[in-house]
Specification:
By secondary structure, the chain is α/β, with parallel strands linked by helices. It has an 8-stranded antiparallel beta sheet, covered by helices on one side. The longest helix is centred in the C-terminal third of the chain and has 22 residues, at about 425-450. The mean pLDDT is about 95. It binds 5-amino-5-deoxy-1-O-phosphono-D-mannitol. 5-amino-5-deoxy-1-O-phosphono-D-mannitol binds near residues 303, 349, 352 and 605.
Length: about 600
């Protein structure tokens, strides 16, 4: 969602802001803008569309000189995407400017109050209310105005603020929207995410809810919402800066697909020691783990799909009942969390608003929450009782691939560990599973080698209107993710169905030539899925089958087959998803779309 970058220091702010915003493009946006103090006054430039429009408009920042500035990429929530609604916004005397990520829930009431005091509003945004409220409270002391505003606004926010009367500083504050502060010898930075400032510094501070950061060119201070100074620990970011570059690939998505062997290895290898699974980050003894009676997995989108696979794997191995919920449903359904239950929230970004709310709801009810998270220091990572990191590194493409693969592996490890401590599997079974896990990276490499074949196949379907994905059990969870990968970046309507459910309605949508992707990797369900293939074939469908090596007789029924190497059936998702990711990617590319920036989508959904 919206991206924020701010800089104060010795260099030209516009250069750094434009560069930083370009690193946040992956978050999704529809307009961009920046405000720079030129030594006398604040100047603002804004544009609709891609960042390059703003770059051209400002001659790459040259027309906006100054060493203090804030910039923003906006993903519209309140008010259409246009230049007026783009951030930064001004107060009425153009002496205070602000950028915002989040939603001010009580903006209508605040707007009414300000209108009665004579304020006029130029935009349809919730954000403008905040800058006018700052104007209302500002009597010469920015900190006093900010703390008063924070007491009035409700909702989620990350703000960057400049006061023309105090141009030696930038104020930054957040609640439930991400914001980091960085420091280098040449100045201080604010950003929504680490990649925006990684080129300039690896020294960052994670701003906590309702903390205020004040950035000077050579100093940094933090305050509580009551304006009391606080100390915070600096965090050194270990990420390889190249991880946030395209490295010669046409899209981040393609690059990230190719990073999956490494991601999978990085997620499991530190957790296998002397033939045993050691998950230190769980902070739970084997006895505590064995005592877990029920698991609730809560997540959104692809992370939810990983959770659906996790349910099958945990229930099968550890024999613990698992419920999987969409976070947006879980948080409002007054869930029953029983004695002995553990909640697992899964999130790449660690900032997804609904998942974070589900975590809080669970903690409020007194339940232990384990976060499976990719971004170190994110809100979910900080608020969960324990965190199992998926070591996927920065994921830039909106459509997740490598983080999803890492989530699967984290869930397998957890399932294996729980099964072992509960005595459901013995050393021999555990060894065999670990050996299978260790083969997955090279098997993924093999599947990635099919790229050209899948591209050719995808090119035949760039004109498709509807594509279906079917499967049973774990294959159904693979279908869910395969379908999402396709639709989110290629805009082809697609649905995933439990294969056995087809006859209860969906089969009426199958007509001559409809592509049905049938996933049949689970030995005990294979024959059943083949029957479903026969059913759709006889109604004219063109069937792409994804099955394991050795199932050659499927060629009698399917029109096109992709074979997956053999592994433990419980780990099949890690392999079968690779050609489906590639298929979605190449349908998108074939249609001429930018797979990294799908319309209307944001990488990190920080609002409800
Ligand atoms: O950051 P999160 O894992 O919490 O994000 C959840 C979903 O928004 C995300 O998985 C989304 O569905 C993917 N970008 C789809 O590829």
């Amino acid at each position: 969602m919206c991206g924020i970058v701010g800089y104060i220091g010795a260099a030209q702010a516009a250069d750094i802001i434009l560069e930083g915003l370009s690193r946040l493009e992956y978050r999704g946006y529809d307009s961009a803008g920046m405000a720079i103090f030129d030594g006398e006054k604040i100047n603002i430039s804004k544009s609709v569309g891609r960042l390059k429009v703003l770059e051209e408009m400002t001659h790459n920042g040259e027309t906006m000189p100054g060493c203090v500035g804030i910039g923003h990429t906006r993903w519209a929530t309140h008010g259409v995407p246009n230049t007026v609604n783009a951030h930064p916004h001004f107060n009425r005397s153009e002496t205070i400017t602000l950028v915002h990520n989040g939603i001010i829930e009580n903006y209508i009431a605040l707007k009414e109050m300000l209108k009665k005091k004579g304020y006029e509003f130029a935009t349809d945004t919730d954000t403008e209310v905040v800058v006018q409220l700052l104007d209302y409270y500002y009597k010469g002391d920015p900190m006093e105005a900010i703390t008063k505003v924070l007491q009035r606004v409700q909702g989620s926010y990350a703000f960057g603020i400049i006061f023309a009367e105090h141009p030696d500083r930038i104020y930054a504050v957040r609640k439930d929207s991400p914001l980091i502060v960085g420091r280098s010898k040449d100045g201080c930075f604010i950003a929504s995410d680490v990649p925006a400032i990684l080129k300039y510094t690896r020294k960052v501070f994670y701003v906590d809810n309702q903390e205020i950061a004040v950035l000077f060119k050579d100093d940094l201070r933090f305050y509580s919402i009551d304006a009391e100074e606080i100390t915070k620990d600096e965090v050194f970011i270990e990420w390889d800066a190249k991880a946030a570059e395209k490295g010669g690939y046409e899209h981040f998505m393609l690059k990230e697909m190719y990073e999956q062997p490494k991601t999978v290895t990085d997620t499991f290898s530190p957790r296998i020691k002397d033939g045993k699974i050691v998950i230190d980050d769980l902070n739970m003894t084997d006895e505590e783990l064995a005592a877990v009676k029920k698991i609730h997995i809560v997540a959104c989108g692809s992370a939810y799909h990983a959770g659906v696979t996790g349910k099958y794997v945990i229930e099968d191995l550890a024999r613990i009942p698992v419920e999987v919920d969409l976070a947006s449903e879980f948080r409002y359904r007054n869930p029953i969390l029983e004695e002995g239950a553990m909640v697992i929230v899964i999130s790449q970004s660690g900032e997804t608003a609904d998942t974070l709310a589900a975590l809080r709801e669970s903690k409020e009810k007194g339940f232990r929450v384990l976060g499976i998270v990719n971004v170190v220091g994110s809100s979910i990572a900080r608020e969960a009782d324990s965190v199992m990191y998926t070591w996927a590194g920065p994921e830039i493409a909106v459509a997740t691939t490598k983080a999803y693969s890492a989530q699967l592996v984290a869930l397998y490890l957890l399932a294996m560990k729980m099964a072992y401590v509960k005595g459901k599997i013995d050393d021999v079974e555990l060894d065999s599973m670990i050996e299978d896990l260790k083969c997955i990276p090279s098997q993924i490499e093999l599947l990635l080698g099919n790229e050209k074949r899948i591209q050719r196949f995808a090119n035949r379907y760039v004109g498709a209107k509807d594509i279906f994905f079917i499967g049973r059990g774990i294959d159904y969870s693979i279908a869910l993710e395969g379908s999402l990968k396709l639709k989110e970046i290629s805009y082809v309507h697609s649905e995933a169905y439990a294969a056995g459910e087809l006859k209860h309605g969906t089969i009426s949508l199958i007509e001559k030539g409809t592509l049905v992707t049938a996933i049949a990797t689970q030995p005990q369900l294979y024959a059943k899925t083949v029957s479903n293939i026969v059913e759709v074939k006889s109604r004219g469908a063109f069937v792409l089958a994804v099955t394991t090596e050795g199932n050659d007789e499927i060629e009698k029924n399917a029109d096109y087959v992709i074979y997956i190497p053999q592994t433990n059936p419980l780990f099949m998702n890690s392999l079968a998803i690779i050609p489906l990711q590639m298929f979605g990617y190449y349908v998108s590319v074939g249609k001429g779309y930018d797979a990294d920036h799908p319309r209307n989508l944001a990488k990190s959904v920080t609002v409800e």
